[in-house]
Amino acid sequence: MSKILVINPGSTSTKIAVYANHDLLVEKTLRHSPEELAGFETITDQYEFREQIVLDVLKTHQIQVATLDAVVGRGGLVYPLEGGCYRVNAQMIRDLKAMVMGEHASNLGALIAKAIGDSIGKPAFIVDPVVVDELEPFARYSGHPELPRISIFHALNQKAVARRIAKELNKPYTECQLIVVHLGGGISVGVHKHGKVVDVNNALDGDGPFSPERSGGLPVGQLVKLCFSGKYSEAEIKKMIKGKGGLVAYIGTNDGRETVERIQAGDTKAREVFEAMAYQVAKEIGAMATVLSGKVDAIVLTGGLAYNRIFVEWVTQRVQFIAPVKVAPGEDEMAALYEGALRVLSGEEEAKDYQGHQ
Ligand SMILES: Nc1ncnc2c1ncn2[C@@H]1O[C@H](COP(=O)(O)OP(=O)(O)O)[C@@H](O)[C@H]1O
Ligand SMILES: CCCC(=O)OP(=O)(O)O
């Protein structure tokens, strides 16, 4: 029997699960408001706070750390790599601490998993981190060679959900042409062409639609002017793009459910902003459909916001002319992390070795 702890830190939540022999023993999601996270200057500063959440959940459910066989965390911003299950090693920890590709809550997945694994002499893994890179050459062009587009997205959930939908379509994933949209704290719109994500917006850093806590793409000229206006520090501008952008900037919350409650209570501003976010998501889907020359098997909406009927309806109305829209609310990340680690523990697959910068 393999008992595995799964740790999934997201920008608006920490998700924890424990599995044993395919049985889900515990699953818990803790949501974090912008106020709760405001006191932490960097993501790494949230380490103790998020680790304590994990340990508290284990304690509440009377699961002894010593009984675990492995720990698997959501993979963060390491150097770009191919998909798969990687053993957390010293190089990975160094790169995450040095924030070589930037900051995101997912960076804490490997750090916490490694600390807990080391405390009991058991291995720690990550699976399909947010930097999985399968972009085709055209997708890397931005418009200036010093600023190539890069692949940062919800790789783990996009891949897991795409495989599930491919099954529903009775087609191997490697033969499908899908557009998968993860609607989380960040929003990614990925083109899955024959099993590879050949184009996707950088969900973290000022690209694509705005999201609950991110600005998405901004008018560059105006942004440059703002950067040099003396009005804001570099750190403040970065926060406008990630953390305090999108819904947070317009209506002060990163919470889709709270937004819906406000809309139901007659808040017209919240309604307009929420609908504008759906409009931008639809526009990005339209753009991504051109990558597949319009030959799209299905458009898939997933992530937390896909639970919301009105939001899904607004997007669907604008994009259903392209392909059938399938809704897979929430995420398959916890099971995908568990299964990735289990494949290694059972000897079905070998853990990949993270090398750092190639
Ligand atoms: N039932 C729901 N209705 C509307 N929005 C929801 C619902 N559940 C989650 N959300 C929203 O989805 C977003 C988070 O999605 P999730 O995929 O869990 O993201 P993350 O991993 O970024 O924390 C938040 O804005 C959250 O409030
Ligand atoms: C870093 C890309 C993935 C992402 O945006 O995740 P969250 O929605 O959990 O912030």
TrEMBL record:
Main location: cytoplasm
Organism superkingdom: Bacteria
GO cellular component terms listed in the entry, alphabetical order: cytoplasm
Molecular functions per Gene Ontology: acetate kinase activity; ATP binding; butyrate kinase activity
Biological processes annotated in GO: acetate metabolic process
InterPro entries: Aliphatic_acid_kin_short-chain (IPR000890), Aliphatic_acid_kinase_CS (IPR023865), ATPase_NBD (IPR043129), Butyrate_kin (IPR011245)
Subcellular location: Cytoplasm
EC numbers, comma separated: 2.7.2.7
Keywords recorded for this protein, A-Z: ATP-binding, Cytoplasm, Kinase, Nucleotide-binding, Transferase
Pfam families referenced in this protein's UniProt entry, alphabetically: Acetate_kinase
Substrates-to-products reaction catalysed: butanoate + ATP = butanoyl phosphate + ADP
Keyword Cytoplasm (UniProt): yes
Family as reported in the entry's similarity comment: Belongs to the acetokinase family.
Protein name, UniProt field: Probable butyrate kinase
This protein's encoding gene: buk
